[in-house]
Write a structure and sequence with these properties.
Blueprint: E1 3-6, E2 13-16, H1 25-38, E3 40-43, H2 50-58, E4 63-71, H3 86-93, E5 108-117, E6 125-129, H4 130-136, H5 139-145, E7 149-152, H6 154-160, E8 185-188, E9 190-192, E10 199-201, E11 207-208, H7 215-229, E12 235-238, E13 245-249, E14 253-257, E15 267-274, H8 277-280
Parallel strand pairs: 2-3
Antiparallel strand pairs: 1-2, 3-13, 4-15, 5-13, 5-15, 6-12, 6-14, 7-8, 7-11, 9-10
Length: 286
């Protein structure tokens, strides 16, 4: 049906001999089971249109948003490279480990990501296995984390790194996605995966303010967890080729961008899969 080549990590696989634009039900069911097992699937040579990418992503569930460019290329073809540019700030912020949309009321289930234009060097995408990270914790740390919750905010993560946008909307806020005026989402530090029943850490750069903990102590603990969790063999970095596509489980994996020379163009396409409210809605938005 298709060939699965596991990566040299605690998760992930390359998948060969498959066309994502034309999956029959039997192949899709086998692929979905493979996705739950490996959490990250990489597909060479797909060259999906945006509509085909969205259609494939829609197999996994409702979409948070359709294929959107993650790119330093503007609409008129100009390359954004100035560190003060809001496009560059957003891209640089993505270089921190994170789960998608934990800052929204509804955390994303997963994402389909594909490469159209890649620079000559750099710009790999990394993923980190938060199930394996939880499994590797000692008993004392598991006991310490049990029941703890933290807030998640894009204002916090971008502001901490100095990457908040400079442009404001008419209400004084930011017009870019994720900068909402709702209460910051409250999420557990340890979360059970709704499909596998396995616990994993839920941390990343958007997390802050552990409830009941001094702010400095909270920041230190979260930084320590992030640094420790995102180490080999729990990480994989993929160097892109045009036409490649991936799908990852955002409930289990964190991910990050890596730097490249932004004087060179790069354009990726990101389709975000919405989480099911029963399992991915923030504790304070239910």
């Amino acid at each position: 049906m298709f060939a699965v080549e596991p990566l040299d990590a605690t998760f992930g696989a390359m998948v060969h001999g498959i066309e994502l634009r034309s999956l029959d039900d039997e192949t899709w069911n086998a692929l979905h089971a493979t996705w739950l097992e490996h959490a990250l699937l990489i597909f060479p040579g797909q060259f999906l249109s945006r509509e085909e990418q969205d259609s494939f992503a829609n197999r996994f569930g409702a979409l948070e948003f359709k294929a959107a460019p993650i790119s330093n290329l503007g609409k008129n073809g100009q390359v954004h490279a100035d560190p003060a540019d809001d496009v560059v700030k957003a891209l640089r912020g993505n270089e921190g480990w994170h789960h998608d949309s934990t800052y929204m009321p509804l955390q994303a289930k997963g994402a389909v990501f594909s490469a159209e234009i890649v620079p000559s060097a750099g710009a790999a995408t990394g993923w980190a296995d938060m199930r394996a990270a939880y499994d590797a914790l000692d008993e004392a740390t598991r006991d310490r984390l049990a029941g703890l919750t933290a807030y998640h905010s894009l204002f916090y993560s971008q502001g901490r790194e100095g990457y908040l946008p400079s442009k404001r909307d008419e209400n004084g806020g930011y017009a870019m996605y994720g900068y909402h005026d709702q209460e910051p989402s409250l999420r557990p530090l340890v979360k059970v995966h709704p499909d596998t029943g396995r616990p994993n850490l839920l941390i990343g750069r958007h997390a802050y303010g552990i409830v009941g903990m001094d702010p400095d102590e909270s920041e230190h603990l979260l930084d320590e967890l992030n640094d420790w969790a995102c180490q080999a063999p729990r990480v994989h970095f993929h160097q892109w080729e045009p036409g490649e596509a991936v799908v990852w489980d955002n409930r289990r994996l964190m991910h990050r961008a890596t730097p490249f020379d932004m004087r060179e163009p790069r354009r990726m396409w990101h389709t975000r899969i919405a989480g099911e409210p029963e399992s991915e809605l923030a504790l304070n938005h239910r």
